[in-house]
Amino acid sequence: EYEFYQFRVPNNTNGPASERNSSATAVFLQNNPVHTLPSLTEGMFGYSLTRPTHNQEYYYGIFDACEKFRCGIEGWHTESGPGVFEAALQFGEITQMADRAALFKLTVKSIASKFGITPCFMAKPRAGLPGNSGHMHVSLVDQKTGKNLFYRETEDKNPPYPDLRYLSDTGQHFLAGLLEGLPDIMPIVAPTVNSYKRLVENFWAPVTVSWGFEHRAASIRLIAPPTASAKATRFEVRVAGADANPYLVLGAILVLGWRGVEKKLEISVPPLGKGEGVGGASDKGVRLAKSLKEATARFMAKDSVAREAFGDEFVEHFGGTREHEIRAWDEAVTDWEVKRYIETV
Asked: What is the pTM assigned to this prediction?
């Protein structure tokens, strides 16, 4: 699932709309503050029946092009926020899904440019509004039988937690692996400085190592019977943003989950119940990293699960790219700083 903001290329350029593309937006932002970039539409119109008709040719154009590129869209609608769309891609095998996710973003950007629109997949483009998520839904299927290996055919009458009564032992170990490894792989699911502006309280984003049955604020949402069919039993990993690399995210989910299966790990934190918010008194999970700097330090630590899961060579290389990003941010002087301090200190 990808959410993304969209902005209109400013009309202060000469020439046809086909030349008012993302390059024109970049030029505009060299001389104008970000907040003056106009949204594709205004207001909070999540799941609106009418807003897609405001830009119908563009809206349908993305859907049709994705069908031709075999990265078909299963759900396609507006989301909460000015100019925000959300797409749920048709599910498939893991490497196929990573290809579809990457191709979807490229398709959106390519078509949008022809309409004088700049789509934005960064995690938090606007302060005070929800960010852009990149939720991943995962399950395990037996290739021979086609059965969902996360589904428990006979209800467990005495599960560790009631939420788990239809989740198989394999599914429980997989979940335990995700929960144990999540704090150590945060630079993969939240790879930029901006990623951590999305992962804050009160914006429907996860902030702790947490899970829950049909819980839409926890890090991992369990989807299973009785509210879902047996074949639809799965986990929705909700930490990743739309800015993350889908190949790395899906690879991390698989290796952490399977590590849990191989080690027969047990679930370390109780589930969040209905109405229980993340980060509150009832949330027993540890707080996820609040910055890329904190996340990268844990990712590169000598005892990090990331080193066990991915190997030292990858951790050193990818961690090094994140350290470079951190240095660039440390050296940056933002508009916020200048506005706040130019006269007051």
From this structure: 0.94
The token pair at 137 is 């839904």
With residue 3 as reference, give the H or E element that holds it.
strand 2-8
Angle 98-99-103 from CA coordinates, rounded to 5°: 120
Give whole-number Cα distances, 148 to 91, 206, 230, in Å.
Answer: 14, 26, 7
C-alpha 191/C-alpha 326 separation (Å) is 11
* 109, amino acid identity: K
Residue 20 near residue 11 (C-beta atoms within 8 A): yes
Structure tokens given for 324? 């470079």
Dist CA 182 CA 51 (whole Å): 37
Task: Express each pLDDT in 172-219 by its tens digit.
Answer: 999 999 999 999 999 999 999 999 999 999 888 999 999 999 999 999
pLDDT tens track for 68-118: 999 999 999 999 999 999 999 999 999 999 999 999 999 999 999 999 999
